[in-house]
Amino acid sequence: MFFKKKVLIEEMKAIEKEFKELNLIACFTGHRPQKLPWGFNENDERFIDMKNRTKVEIENAIKRGYHTFLCGMALGFDMMCAELVLELQKIYPNIKLIGAIPCKTQKNRWIKSQQDRYDKLVKQLDDIRCIYDEYVDGCMQERNQYMINNSSLVIALYNGLGGGTKSTIDYAKKQGKEVVVIKP
């Protein structure tokens, strides 16, 4: 009886491991425009090149079976990735985009055009996870950890310097997540 119980426990652990490996959810992390060589200029050829490379990585994830994408909905890389996923939903209607928002007031300090873009994207999300009602210290980091904890793949725009993106990538690696780095 003891041997049978031990075998069952080992089988359960193997099934749990396989289930975790089947967590085909990806998330995004990346620098805000201020930290990138093109800033807010999305007509810059470096931005266009990075956007095309990111689209390829998202589509590669979809072809590998990834069906859900978590997006922090921050300015820059996050919002661009949300737009790319929405564009790819036209080709792959089974994929989902979930906004992982640090607080309901995330957009309040942005200029109107950025707020309008954000609002347009939020309306198209398949679902929203909001960490806090109001901004509190650490809510961005908590949002990032939420995304990592609920994903198995991280698609990151990373310039090699310190900051929130580096911390998120480091956390993802410690959690054993696959990280695809796109250089600006």
Structural overview:
With 184 residues, this protein is α/β, with parallel strands linked by helices. Helices cover 47% and strands 18% of the residues. The protein contains 6 helices and 6 strands, in the order αβαβαβαβαβαβ. A 6-stranded parallel beta sheet has the order 4-3-2-1-5-6, with helices on both faces. α4 (112-124) links the parallel β3 and β4. α3 packs parallel to α4 (112-124). The chain is globular. The model is unreliable at 1-5 (pLDDT under 50).
Question: Helix content range of the residues, please?
Answer: 40-55%
Mean pLDDT: 90
The number of helical segments is: 6
- Tell me the distance between the termini: 59 Å
Side by side, the strands of the main sheet go 4-3-2-1-5-6
Structural class: alpha/beta
Strand content: 15-25%
Low-confidence stretches: 1-5
What is the general shape?
globular
Number of strands: 6
Largest sheet: 6 strands, parallel
Radius of gyration: 18 Å
Helix and strand string, N-terminal first? HEHEHEHEHEHE
